[in-house]
Every structure is written in C-alpha cells, then in structure tokens.
C-alpha cells in the first residue's frame, strides 16, 4: 500500500514544485555568494582590528611610539579600503591626512581634538595623548569609516579635497 501511495501522490512532481526547488537552489547559491563577498570585502577591517588589538592599551610604548603605531594602522586601513582607492592616501600627511580622517569618520565625541593630539604626538613626544581615547577612536574609525561626502561649491562643480583624485589604476 505504501508504494502505491508514494507513486500516486509524490512522484512525478508537478511543474510548480520543480520551479520552487529551482528558486530555492538558486536563492541559496546567490545568498551564499553574497555572504562570501561581504566577508571578503570586510577582511581589511578585521585585519586592522587585529593589529590594533596587538597594541593592547599602549602602555608598553612611548607616547610618540603609540601615536606612530596608531597612525600606521589607520593609514593601512585607509589604503586597503575599497572606499578610498581613487585617492592618494599613502602620500597624505599633516593637514591633508587630518582632513581625510575627519571627513571619513562618523561622529565621535571631540574627534577633531583627538586627531590633532594623535598627529602631533607622532612628532612631539610631550604632546598630550590620551592613549585609551586614541585607541578607542582608532577602533571606532576602523569599524565605522565611510565614503567621503561629495563636496560641491556654489557653482555646482565638485571640489577636490587636498587629497587629489588619482588616475585610474591599470592592473
């Protein structure tokens, strides 16, 4: 009796079931592919956070040493980010680097002063550097940085920041 019931009601399947199975398989494959691309796209952030974690609380480094290390982690992250591949981040320093960090960072309490202290501490060992706050800002920037907002002047033309747009990369 079971074989008879199975052959009458379950097989062969109606065309709607075949369509449903095809949609489920295709949707699963596309979902797995999208998840893989997302994980791969965010790998640079995880790598930067691991570098930051290795620094710990910064107590084993001098202030200028910690500032250099944090600056290096931020610059590596910016260079690896797909958001900024069209910019000359590697050569940015001083005001251009400060402007970039401020523009690409979401709101963080007193971010302008933190960035100033971090960048000044690289060259001035006696500058005020709050290690915990600087590390917290770096972690926040790594996790939350975003596209630079489009800057447009009064005439409607796009303005370039002090970090100029680079030429197209040919691989």
List the helices and strands and how they pair.
Blueprint: H1 2-9, H2 15-41, H3 43-55, H4 63-80, H5 94-104, H6 111-123, H7 131-144
Radius of gyration: 25 Å
Distance between the termini: 67 Å
Low-confidence stretches: 152-160, 165-171
Secondary structural class: mainly alpha
What is the overall pLDDT average? 80
Can you count the helices? 7
Secondary structure: helix percent: 55-70%
Number of strands: 0
In quaternary terms, these chains amount to: single chain
* Percent strand: under 5%
The largest pleated sheet is described as: none
Describe the overall structure:
The protein has 171 residues and is mainly alpha-helical. The chain is built from seven helices and no strands. The protein has helices spanning 2-9, 15-41, 43-55, 63-80, 94-104, 111-123, 131-144. Helix 3 (43-55) packs antiparallel against helix 4, helix 4 (63-80) packs parallel to helix 7 and helix 5 runs antiparallel to helix 6 (111-123). The chain is elongated. Mean pLDDT is 80; it is low at 152-160 and 165-171.
């Amino acid at each position: 009796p079971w074989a008879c019931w199975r052959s009458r009601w379950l097989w062969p399947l109606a065309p709607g079931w075949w369509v449903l199975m095809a949609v489920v398989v295709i949707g699963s494959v596309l979902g797995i592919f999208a998840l893989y691309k997302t994980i791969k796209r965010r790998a640079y952030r995880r790598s930067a956070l691991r570098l930051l974690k290795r620094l710990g609380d910064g107590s084993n480094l001098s202030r200028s040493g910690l500032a250099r290390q944090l600056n290096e982690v931020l610059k590596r992250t910016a260079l690896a980010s797909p958001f900024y591949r069209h910019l000359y981040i590697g050569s940015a320093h001083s005001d251009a680097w400060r402007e970039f960090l401020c523009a690409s960072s979401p709101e963080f309490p007193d971010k302008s002063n933190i960035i100033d202290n971090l960048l000044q501490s690289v060259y001035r060992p006696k500058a005020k550097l709050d290690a915990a706050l600087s590390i917290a800002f770096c972690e926040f920037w790594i996790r939350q940085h975003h596209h630079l907002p489009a800057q447009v002047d009064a005439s409607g033309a796009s303005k370039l920041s002090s970090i100029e747009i680079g030429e197209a990369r040919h691989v």
